[in-house]
């Protein structure tokens, strides 16, 4: 009889433990879902409608979402472009490309099919955008490593020197390219019109057998137009 009572107590304890464990897992799941919702709601891009890049490039007025921002908004946006793989384009008030720097990569080594679509000359060395795919196809020295992306942005924004990771002695000296203080110092008192869009681009992939595959891909784009 005593053994039966002990067995019932043990079974009850196991039952209570299972209930407590299930409740704890449920609460953790709900907490994570709530955190995801809060994080998503804090990202303004989740609530933006996107237009096409063609509308933006041809001066169209079908921009669905735009606002006026300062450097304090642009900086965190730049630090996410290589993590979330979207394009950030800078333009002058008249819509022409706002030059950020000149690439020091070898044009002859650019990937097949790469063109600088923001300037009249496809082989123009001037750069007005941040885009992982384009930088990779140009073989920029910071591509392929998230730490290098961050280091390059740090130097670009502050006006420092980004040394090529290869150790060949080459570098991007942003204090000379942009000026002392870098991008932040130069535009700290400026305002930009932020426009959000979406465009389809051709992704060119070279296969091992020597053939070239072209596929259409959609990508988010954020355009910052400098205001007078």
Any key phrases for this structure?
two-stranded antiparallel sheet; elongated; 228 residues; alpha+beta
Shape: elongated
Computed over alpha carbons, the radius of gyration is: 25 Å
Order of helices and strands: HEHEHEEEEHHEEHHEE
Count of the separate structural domains: 2
Please report the distance between the alpha carbons of the first and last residues. Answer: 91 Å
Count of extended strands: 10
Model regions low in confidence, pLDDT < 50 over at least 5 residues: 37-52, 55-62
In terms of topology, how is this protein built?
Layout: H1 2-41, E1 51-52, H2 53-57, E2 66-69, H3 71-84, E3 87-91, E4 101-102, E5 126-127, E6 129-130, H4 132-138, H5 146-158, E7 161-163, E8 171-173, H6 174-177, H7 182-187, E9 192-206, E10 212-226
Parallel strand pairs: 1-9, 3-10
Antiparallel strand pairs: 2-9, 3-6, 4-5, 7-8, 9-10
Short synopsis of the structure:
The protein is α+β, with helices and mostly antiparallel strands and 228 residues long. It has helices spanning 2-41, 53-57, 71-84, 132-138, 146-158, 174-177, 182-187; strands at residues 51-52, 66-69, 87-91, 101-102, 126-127, 129-130, 161-163, 171-173, 192-206, 212-226.
């Amino acid at each position: 009889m005593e053994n039966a009572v002990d067995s019932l107590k043990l079974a009850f304890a196991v039952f209570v433990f299972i209930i407590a464990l299930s409740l704890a897992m449920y609460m953790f799941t709900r907490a994570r879902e709530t955190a995801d919702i809060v994080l998503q709601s804090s990202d303004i891009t989740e609530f933006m409608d996107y237009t096409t890049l063609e509308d933006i490039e041809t001066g169209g007025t079908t921009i669905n979402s735009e606002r006026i921002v300062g450097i304090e908004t642009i900086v965190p946006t730049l630090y996410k472009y290589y993590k979330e793989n979207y394009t950030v384009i800078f333009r002058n008030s008249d819509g022409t490309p706002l030059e950020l720097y000149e690439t020091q990569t070898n044009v002859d080594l650019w990937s097949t099919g790469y063109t600088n679509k923001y300037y009249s000359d496809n082989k123009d060395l001037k750069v007005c955008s941040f885009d992982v795919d384009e930088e990779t196809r140009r073989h920029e020295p910071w591509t392929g490593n998230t730490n290098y992306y961050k280091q390059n942005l740090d130097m670009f924004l502050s006006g420092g020197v980004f040394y090529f990771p290869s150790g060949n002695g080459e570098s991007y000296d942003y204090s000379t390219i942009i000026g002392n203080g870098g991008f932040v110092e130069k535009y700290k008192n400026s305002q930009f019109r932020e426009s959000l869009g979406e465009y389809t681009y051709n992704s060119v992939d070279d296969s091992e057998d020597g053939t070239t595959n072209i596929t259409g891909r959609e990508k988010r784009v954020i355009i910052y137009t400098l205001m007078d």
